[in-house]
Amino acid sequence: MKLIDGKVIAAEIRAELKARTQAFEEKYGKKIGLAVVLIGNDPASQVYVRNKVKACEEAGIRSFRHDLPEETTQKQAEELVSALAEDEHVHGILIQLPLPRGLDEKRLLSLIPPSKDVDGFLAENIGRLALKEAGTVACTPLGVMEMLSRSNIPVAGKRAVVVGRSNIVGRPMALLLLNADATVTVCHSKTKDLLEECRRADILVAAIGKPKFITADMVKEGAVVIDVGMDRDENGKLCGDVDFENVKEKASAITPVPGGVGPMTIAMLLKNTCDAAERAQR
């Protein structure tokens, strides 16, 4: 069984990105910039933002952090995002979700230009992915593809099963695998005989947000298992959507939680920001 170490792969990518940011600064006389907008005081969001800002600094990306109070109005939030959209020093804009109640998430995200949508959440970028055109891809599924590639795990011709159909992981994950010539099945809460569907997978991606949901009897011998989940078990311990201890006995390769897909998500956010900055100079 091969453990796919997201920390190690993400560190490699950050080192590569540091060289890219230095080359950009030397060529254009300015830093690559990422604006991070945090509204409210959600503890998990504050941790995520702190990690993203720290990762930016390490990669040589200038972060513009904007912390707004819980009572921020829709108008105030829109004014900030609109100003960032116009700022030539900002190459990527990230609005940390979830937003406080009363704020229109869809409206706020729509104010981000597709060229600065480093999360890859906008309809235009998802449409480009569906049409196999160049655009920005959601960070987590992009990170999964990078892990597979750097771990020398072939995708073309393989049967891939994605459990979960969210707009930010499941759907773009399925499209990326399809674009890489896998035969793809997407499973969800209405799927009949989920057990059998999962058992057919050469590559099984779990992205449903249910702790230890994928058990050993759902996994084919020798399958590659990618765990996108970030959950807490009955003892409050961090775990994924996969019953890791039992599934690892059957998998040929598997990602741990923590230390698997999580570090890759932030690494891909930095990569998307670098890509956006370089495109803006063309």
UniProtKB/TrEMBL annotation:
Q: Which Enzyme Commission numbers does its entry carry? A: 1.5.1.5, 3.5.4.9
Q: Which keywords describe this protein according to UniProt?
A: Amino-acid biosynthesis, Histidine biosynthesis, Hydrolase, Methionine biosynthesis, Multifunctional enzyme, NADP, One-carbon metabolism, Oxidoreductase, Purine biosynthesis
Q: Pathway, per Swiss-Prot/TrEMBL?
A: One-carbon metabolism; tetrahydrofolate interconversion
Question: Which top-level group of life is the source organism from?
Answer: Bacteria
Query: What biological-process GO terms show up in the record?
Result: L-histidine biosynthetic process; methionine biosynthetic process; purine nucleotide biosynthetic process; tetrahydrofolate interconversion
Q: Which Gene3D superfamilies does the protein's record reference?
A: Leucine Dehydrogenase, chain A, domain 1, NAD(P)-binding Rossmann-like Domain
Coiled-coil region(s): none
**Sorted alphabetically, which Pfam families does this protein's record hold?**
THF_DHG_CYH, THF_DHG_CYH_C
Q: Where does NADP(+) bind?
A: G164, R165, S166
Outline the extent of the Tetrahydrofolate dehydrogenase/cyclohydrolase NAD(P)-binding domain: 138-280
- One Gene Ontology MF term: methylenetetrahydrofolate dehydrogenase (NADP+) activity
InterPro entries recorded for this chain? Aminoacid_DH-like_N_sf, NAD(P)-bd_dom_sf, THF_DH/CycHdrlase, THF_DH/CycHdrlase_cat_dom, THF_DH/CycHdrlase_CS, THF_DH/CycHdrlase_NAD-bd_dom
Q: Which reaction does it catalyse?
A: (6R)-5,10-methylene-5,6,7,8-tetrahydrofolate + NADP(+) = (6R)-5,10-methenyltetrahydrofolate + NADPH; (6R)-5,10-methenyltetrahydrofolate + H2O = (6R)-10-formyltetrahydrofolate + H(+)
List cellular component terms (GO): cytosol
Q: Which residues form the Tetrahydrofolate dehydrogenase/cyclohydrolase catalytic domain?
A: 4-119
Family, according to the entry, reads as follows:
Belongs to the tetrahydrofolate dehydrogenase/cyclohydrolase family.
**Protein role:** Catalyzes the oxidation of 5,10-methylenetetrahydrofolate to 5,10-methenyltetrahydrofolate and then the hydrolysis of 5,10-methenyltetrahydrofolate to 10-formyltetrahydrofolate.
- Describe its assembly: Homodimer.
Q: What protein is this chain from?
A: Bifunctional protein FolD
What is the source species?
A: Candidatus Gallimonas gallistercoris
Cite the source lineage.
Bacteria, Bacillati, Bacillota, Clostridia, Candidatus Gallimonas
Instruction: Point out the gene that encodes the protein.
Output: folD
